[in-house]
Structures are given as structure tokens and as C-alpha cells.
Design a protein that fits this description.
This protein is α/β, with parallel strands linked by helices. The chain has 2 domains: about 190 residues, Rossmann fold, CATH 3.40.50; about 180 residues, Glycogen Phosphorylase B (Rossmann fold), CATH 3.40.50. The strands form 2 sheets. A 7-stranded parallel sheet has the order 2-1-13-3-4-5-6, sandwiched between helices. A 6-stranded parallel sheet has the order 9-8-7-10-11-12, with helices on both faces. Strand 3, helix 4 and strand 4 form a beta-alpha-beta unit. Helix 3 crosses helix 4, helix 4 runs parallel beside helix 5 and helix 12 crosses helix 14. It is globular. The two termini are about 15 Å apart. It comes from Robbsia betulipollinis. This is Glycosyltransferase family 4 protein.
């Protein structure tokens, strides 16, 4: 989504390389962005936590993808990598095509998120083959600095920008209408969690927190990705064990995040490991819904506790349960929180400011100037 905001503004100068097909391709094409899909067999099975050796199929996939990006990069001025996989491919392609590589870091590169072998690869590539790094938070930047020790002038922090327009539009629709649209109970108190289903995202903590709260429902918006189907199965089993089948709603992947957030009473960010940024936190603020966020990582840079949101200790069920009760019982306080949160989000995470900063950095590294309609172009890669 953050890449999309940039692409929409420089659509005539970029080509996006996707490493797998899916809804994002159509979203880009609808925005008139040039898209190439290259998804060799085996490559998609690589994960942050993996074994010591690279499977033969995955190795062939890396070579094929790198060659594809090398071919494209020869007619472009810069490679802009937007995920970990894209960073690896982009680094290799940049070395062989003699093009600068900008890596937009959207992860916390720490043992909580990556196995030691992958951290070693990230350290080596970022030090030797990446021209510049854009980090999406101070937390992301610090983790990379701790790992690789990059010179300060090789890393910049640019916070994500999120368009308030869709959230403002959703605010005009009655909540009951939105709930009926998605098959949600109109009278229940809904606590929504918006992220892919993954253990470190902490949906299991939310289920425990609402287990003894009759009338409080959990709404899980997101699907299991990257081989995390086992965790989704564990969540469904947890729901049965807790006896809350009628109060938990698995909605899977959804595109109308503004409408769904508006349908909630509270949005809960429950990650048990440090979040690189916390896009869902800003989205909740724009949706004018109270946000409870875990006090770690990029979340600490987005909200101020009890000013425009509420913090909880990561993984602390009792703390989360208490904060849900507090917001449920203090509607006047909630009204003040959401007003301040909306103002904070609009001021600090404006998409135009974000895109201008990113494009300026890409121009600086690539040696071109899109602002003056220069026809130089950029190759973008995203896993």
C-alpha cells in the first residue's frame, strides 16, 4: 500500500516487478502503473525463518528473478526494492546491471523476526551492495544500524503516508449499515484486529482478552500468508477451547479497510514483537476509532499514550483486557482521544509529504529529476 502511493504519483516513470501474482497486480494496473509478474517455482517458499541452506528450487528461482530484474534495470536508472526478498534480488541485479539500489526497509531486522542465517545475508548485502536504505521508522533504522553498522548518510527515515480520503468517506456511512454489509452483529461491542494471521501479530492475545467479556466480539481481518496456515488453525482451535465461537469473526482478506474499521468500537494492535511501523494504527486514527497498541517498535513513534491512543505491554492479556474495559466504559474520553488521533494522523502521516520525501531520495540516489518531467525511469521490485 505504501508503494502504491508512490507509484500512483510517478506512474509514467516506473515499472513494478511482482514476485507473485495477486490482487496487488490489478490494483496497480487500475492505477495505470506498468507491472511485470515473475514468479518462479520454489522462490515463494522462502520465509524469514528458515533453514541453513537454500533449497535447489529456491536457488534457481533467485537466479531467474535476478536475471529478469537485470534485464529490466538496463533500461532504467534505479532499482527500488520494497521487501526483504526484493532487496536480495535487487542487490544482485544492481551489481550486475551497474544500477544503484534503494532498499525501502519495512521490517525490524532482529532475531525476533529473522533467523540468524538470513540476518547475516541482510547484513552483508546492506553493507556491500545496497546504495541507500529508506527505513519506515526510527525503530526499523536502529535495528538495521545495530545489525550492519551502516554510515548515517546511507539510511534515511521516512514515515509512511496514508490517505485520509477513504476513511472520511466511510465516516459518512452509518455503522449499522457497515456491520450488515460484512455480516457482523449490529448491537455487539466489536474489537477489530487488522493484519495477516501470524503468531507475532498476536491475535491469540486478543482472543484471551475478550474470553470473559460477554457482549464483546473479536473481529479478525486478514488471512494467513507466507506458510502461516498452522497459526490460523491454532486460532480456530483456541476459539473452540475458550467457548467463544459465537463472538469471534474470521473475515479473511478484505479490501475495504476504512469501512471495516469504521464498523468497530475499538481497533486493537496486538503484536507481541516490535512492529516496524504500524500502518493499522494510523488507519484506526484516520477512521476515528480508539486504538490500543502494543508499546514497542514503530508504534511508539505514532501515538502518545492516553493522548491519541492507548498502549499495552506486548503479549499482556490482562493489560489488554483492562484497556478494552477502560475504553468501553469511558465514552467521553474516547471522543476526545479520537479527535486528537485524527489530527495527529493527518499532520504526521500525510501521503503527499511521504511520497515527495521518497521520490526526492530516489532522485538523489539515481541522479535524475522527475519533478521536471525528466523521462528517466525507475525499476521497482516488490516481493
Amino acid at each position: 500500500m505504501s508503494l502504491l502511493e508512490v507509484c500512483k504519483r510517478i506512474r509514467h516513470f516506473c515499472n513494478v516487478v511482482l514476485f507473485s501474482d495477486g490482487p496487488f497486480r490489478q490494483i496497480l494496473q487500475d492505477a495505470n502503473v506498468d507491472v511485470t509478474v515473475s514468479s518462479p517455482r520454489g522462490f515463494s517458499n522462502l520465509h524469514k525463518q528458515g533453514g541453513r541452506t537454500l533449497p535447489a528450487g529456491a536457488l534457481r528461482g533467485v537466479v531467474k528473478l535476478a536475471w529478469e530484474v537485470i534485464r529490466l534495470a538496463r533500461s532504467h536508472r534505479l532499482i527500488y526494492a520494497n521487501t526483504q526478498k526484493a532487496m536480495v534480488i535487487g542487490a544482485l541485479a544492481g551489481a550486475f546491471s551497474h544500477r544503484p539500489v534503494v532498499w525501502h526497509l519495512r521490517d525490524i531486522v532482529s532475531p525476533d523476526h529473522f533467523d540468524p542465517n538470513k540476518l547475516r545475508v541482510i547484513k552483508w548485502l546492506s553493507k556491500s551492495m545496497i546504495t541507500h536504505v529508506i527505513a519506515n521508522s526510527q525503530a526499523s533504522a536502529k535495528a538495521l544500524q545495530d545489525l550492519a553498522g551502516l554510515p548515517p548518510d546511507r539510511i534515511s527515515v521516512i514515515y509512511n503516508g496514508i490517505d485520509a480520503g477513504p476513511f472520511d468517506a466511510a465516516a459518512k456511512i452509518p455503522v449499522a449499515v457497515l456491520r450488515r454489509r460484512y455480516g457482523l452483529p449490529t448491537e455487539a461491542f466489536l474489537v477489530g484486529a487488522f493484519s495477516r494471521l501470524a503468531k507475532w501479530k498476536g491475535q491469540h492475545v486478543l482472543l484471551e482478552a475478550i474470553a470473559n467479556k460477554p457482549g464483546v466480539h473479536a473481529v479478525l481481518v486478514g488471512a494467513a500468508l507466507f506458510g502461516e496456515d498452522e497459526y490460523e488453525a491454532q486460532l480456530r482451535e483456541q476459539v473452540k477451547t475458550l467457548g467463544i465461537e459465537d463472538r469471534v469473526h474470521f473475515l479473511g482478506f478484505q479490501s475495504d479497510i476504512p469501512g471495516l474499521m469504521r464498523a468497530m468500537d475499538i481497533v486493537a494492535h496486538t503484536s507481541i514483537a516490535s512492529e516496524p511501523f504500524g500502518r493499522v494504527i494510523v488507519e484506526a486514527m484516520l477512521a476515528r476509532r480508539p486504538i490500543i497498541a502494543t508499546a514497542a517498535g514503530g508504534a511508539l513513534e505514532i501515538i502518545t499514550d492516553q493522548v491519541d491512543g492507548s498502549f499495552v505491554e506486548p503479549g499482556n492479556v490482562r493489560d489488554l483486557s483492562s484497556k478494552i474495559d477502560m475504553l468501553r466504559e469511558n465514552l467521553d474520553m474516547v471522543a476526545e482521544l479520537v479527535v486528537r488521533a485524527y489530527a495527529t494522523a493527518c499532520a504526521n502521516f500525510n501521503p503527499d509529504v511521504y511520497c515527495q520525501a521518497v521520490v526526492k531520495q530516489l532522485e538523489s540516489v539515481g541522479g535524475f529529476n522527475l519533478a521536471t518531467n525528466c523521462v528517466d525511469s525507475m525499476a521497482m521490485s516488490r516481493a
